[in-house]
Amino acid sequence: xxxxxxxxxxxxxxxxxxxxxxxxxxxxxxDDRLCASFLCxxxxxxMFGNTKVDELECxxxxxxxxKEKYTEAAKEKDYPExxxxxxxxxxxxxxxxxxxxxxxxxxxxEAATAxxxxxxxxxxxxxxxxxxxxxxxxxxxxxxxxxxDPDKLTPEAHATISAEIDALKRQREKLDSEFKKLxxxxxxxxxxxxQLCEMCGALLSIFDNDxxxxxxxxxxxxxxxxxxxxxxxxxxxxxxxxxxxRPSTGDRARDRDRGDRSGDRDRRDRSRDRNDRSRD
Length: 280
Description:
Layout: H1 2-15, H2 36-39, H3 44-47, H4 64-73, H5 80-111, H6 116-144, H7 155-182, E1 194-196, E2 203-205, H8 210-217, H9 220-236, H10 249-279
Antiparallel strand pairs: 1-2
Helix pairs in contact: 5-9, 6-7, 6-8
């Protein structure tokens, strides 16, 4: 999927006479103008297009050429500075998602009118639905890919997951029956039907069918945050926060500019001092 998107991006850049590197040619993938997350294959701005969490256009440059160079170079060694910038960008998306989850949870708590026992049962039902949805997504993904793909399940694994889904559906029927018995007379449970997906911040209905569950758990928003949260955990394990960032190409260029301007001011100051002394 990412490869196809990059190929399309490269074609558009070539057709428009733009390499994605701006007026000043970028020759090093360590240049600070480049998006570190794009180089690492996971820019949030590319992951959530046309979803409720669409992050629109990335403020950093996306160069397919530099990404290819970085991918090859990263096979030989890690580039901690790039990985650290990538980690910080992903942590920003996770923090925003967590804030969205907190707001959603608060709204649901304010809207709930049933007693705590009913609310707890609704939460159990939602957790059961999440387990079903995650397994349905695994089967759906496996059925769509070719043999040899990492997401392709063996027949044994496919059968095991199918059996787990059947067991979870029986549990769902039991929980659904228990939930409805706890509802006040005349209530349809509408004030309790929405539950929060704490992975991506979306709201799920406890009455969703298999198709809706598969669409959510296999959807762009949910899977995007599954990948982002996993990447954050993996990058944190590298202890990148302890690495002191060295200046990037862009940083060094700005430092040189500041140094040149500072040197010019010093020379002007010395010249004024000499002129003042000569007048004295």
